[in-house]
Amino acid sequence: MNWALALPEIVLAACGLLILVIGVLRKSDSAQLCSMLTLGAFLVTGLLVLTRPGGIGYYGQFTVDSFAVLTKLLILIGAALSLMLSFDYNDRQGIARFEYPVLILFATVGMMGMVSASSLMTLYVALELQSLALYVLAAFARDELRSSEAGLKYFVLGALASGLLLYGISLVYGFSGTMDFGVLAHALGSPAQASAGLIVGVVFVIVGLAFKISAAPFHMWTPDVYEGSPTSVTVFLATAPKVAAMALLLRVMAEPFGHLLASWQLVIEVVSIASMVLGALAAIGQTNVKRLMAYSSIGHMGYALIGLAVGTPLGMRGVLVYLIVYIFMSAGTWACIIAMRRQGLAVEKIEDLSGLARTDPGLALAFAIFMFSMAGIPPLSGFFGKLYVFLAAVQSGLWTLAIIGVLTSVVGSYYYLRIVKVMYFDAPGPALDRRPSMLGFVAAVTGVFTLFFFLFPGPLVAAAGTAASALFG
Amino acid sequence: MIYMLAVFAPLAGALVAGLLGRWIGDRAAMAASVLGMAVAAVCGPLAWAMLEWGGAPAGTIRIATWIQAGSFHVHWALRYDALSAVMVAMVGFVSMLIHVYSVGYMAHDSYRRYRFFAYLSLFTFAMLMLVTANNLLQLFFGWEGVGLCSYLLIGYWYDRPAACAAAIKAFVVNRIGDLAFAIGVAMLFLTFGSIGFTTIFAHLAQHQTERYHILGGSIRVYELIAILLFIGAMGKSAQLFLHVWLPDAMEGPTPVSALIHAATMVTAGVFLVARMSPLFDQAPAAMTLVAVIGGSTAFFAATIGCVQNDIKRVIAYSTCSQLGYMFLGEGVGAYPASIFHLLTHAFFKALLFLCAGSVIHAMSDEQDMRKMGGLWRKIPITYVTMWAGSLALGGVFPFAGYYSKDAILEAALAAHSAVGDYGFVMGILAAVMTGFYSWRLLLMTFHGKPRGDHHAMAHAHESPWVMTVPLMVLAVGALSAGFLLHGIVIGPHWQYFWRGTLVLAPGNQVMTAMDQLPGWAYVVPSIAGLLGIAIAYWFYWWNPMLPVRLASQFRPLYLFLLNKWYFDELYDALFVRPAFALGKLLWQTGDETIIDGVPNGLADLAVDGSRGAVKIQTGSIAVYAFTMLIGLVVLVGIFLIWG
Question: Beta partners for B634?
Answer without folding.
Answer: none
